[in-house]
Amino acid sequence: METSTYPKTKIYNTRLEKFFVEELKEIYGAERYFQNSLGKMRDAATNKKLIKVLNDQKRVTIDQMSRLEDAFRCLGKRIEFLRCEVMENLVKQTWYSIEKTAGNSKAMDVALIHSCHKIRHFEVAAYHGLISMAETLDYCKIKQLLNETLQEDKEAVEMFSLLPKWEITYQSAN
Fold first, then answer.
1. Is residue 4, in this structure, part of any structural domain at all?
2. 117-152 per-position pLDDT tens digit
3. How many contiguous H segments (helices) and E segments (strands) does the chain have?
């Protein structure tokens, strides 16, 4: 089984390799932006379970950024990020949702859960694409790193699903 992080052919000189690196930079920027926003999201939350999940997500996101840094090192590339407009807009929408639900802490918690769901679903889609490219480019080690992050993001989606939304939603309606 091939375990090299470098491809067997010259495909790494193609546009796909350049596109892959650009996408790595963008998802690194996205993770960084999300990580920087999680503290404010946690501060807006009132449900104890949600606060714990947001604290955990901050730690998980830092680990995910570390794996992306490892991927850059595997490629011999400088660790850098690109602005990710999708993440910026998702986070901006989170702040808008918090504003719209201000004055009702339970409604804000529901809005936060909904926003985090959208953010993690975006990341799942992004990592699926990166893994496909890593596989095409025969970047086995990078594929492993990305797959670990993908699994964490899928777990995060599930974790947000398990939060007591029904309880929060019921209380916010009253």
1. no
2. 999 999 999 999 999 999 999 999 999 999 999 999
3. 6, 0
